[in-house]
Amino acid sequence: MSDFKTPIYMDYSATTPVDPRVAEKMMQCLTMDGVFGNPASRSHAHGWAAEDLVDTARDEVAKTVGADSREIVWTSGATESNNLAIKGAAHFNQRRGKHIVTMKTEHKAVLDTCRQLEREGFEVTYLDPKEDGLLDLEVLKAALRDDTTIVSVMHVNNETGVVQDIAAIGEICRDRKIVFHVDAAQSVGKVIVDVEAAKVDLMSFSAHKAYGPKGIGALFVRRKPRVRIEAQIHGGGHERGMRSGTLPTHQIVGMGEAFRLAREEMGAENERIRMLRDRLYDGFKDMEEVFVNGDLDQRIAGNLNISFNFVEGESLMMSLRDVAVSSGSACTSASLEPSYVLRALGRSDELAHSSLRFTIGRFTTVEEVDLAIEQTRAAVEKLRDLSPLWDMYKDGIDLDSVVWAAH
Amino acid sequence: MAYGSKVMDHYDNPRNVGSFDAKEAEIGTGMVGAPACGDVMRLQIKVGTDGVIEDAKFKTYGCGSAIASSSLLTEWVKGKTLDEAKEIKNTAIAEELELPPVKIHCSVLAEDAIRAAIDDYQSKQ
Hints:
The structure holds 2 protein chains of 2 kinds. By secondary structure, chain A is α/β, with parallel strands linked by helices. Chain A is 37% helix and 13% strand.
């Protein structure tokens, strides 16, 4: 066991603990007395048993997202799914066109994949969101060209929790026969996912954001109308040739079970989490200069991304000894740049630096929320006492008018 | 990234937080950094007639390492002459606080702050 005393967890958007019920099922697929066989072993019962479990899990994932089992491809996670979807579709369709449209607020797995395609000679348009984080459909339409082959827009944003209207976007893409990819890593268990209703062609899923294990995900690849992608990993032709590699039974079983629970328990769970999140926000509402980042309504229940003006994010987190959260502050990233998502929403650098992201989930309690409120309020107060910017604000100085001596 | 104990100490018990009246002749004020960078330090010194720094105060908007760097600096400059204070190197601050490479720039900003404060004081004389 580590030496660190672990704090209260409020970083569910970064990852989730595996639900004990999921872990239980996974452990039955590891050792000699369990189902450890290679699902591709056609010739003996070890293989058949494993294949059976994989099929069941595939069905559960398909059911949760409104797809057919044959449309689910197992990957190592949403990052790989995003790579497979975008590169796969871009390469397959390149004779038709080499233009891709996405948003500035996408996850790095999408943005970096697009950058790589740009290096290969593709053209990518990165659209700005509105201030509330949502994509303006007119802006999207204006960006589409005759040579546009793919549009990629995430369903739920990992930083702000904002939910895009993917059905409306799907409608537009289907009309123009453009492949529509959606990164739904943060969606399952939080919002309804229906690939049919949203007219989605490719959709990325992650297990570890839904109380499943890390290292496993899936890609939905539509059969009707048929969507074709070029495989990125070769070697054996697994998953209908789209993704080679021995299927990890224990991981797949974990994801299947996690997605089943998500589907069955989402309604009740969301209600409880929303109540807790609102309680958390209520704890800060009476404070001065506090801003919620992203639309409050079009948002998942468990996310509170909030900026406390004139206080820097990392120093805030240092004060939150007993609470684990993340921040859009540059200090917390390896580069020294503030959150590009918050910047894309039009937030000033200061507010991006001053942001905290609380994401609560299945195991969060009322006591934990109350403690987080207490510690956060105390920290903000203390740091504002320390802050020259707070002084200047109190003195009525307009910070935008100041000429700073940055080095 | 666990925080160094010295940084935590300055963060929990910052020394010399506050401000002087910047208009007074004996006060030098250095304000460096920018909100856009996530780091702003305001360092103020009170200089006696003998050219020795009698007192120092600071306020910082920034991460724990930035707060610690400026707090430490206010401790160090007290009792020094202006020339001695000008000699303080960011590397000394970084070493004392055991700053990791990614936080060295916080100590550089602190060094800039004391220089700016001294310059401001001297320009008033």
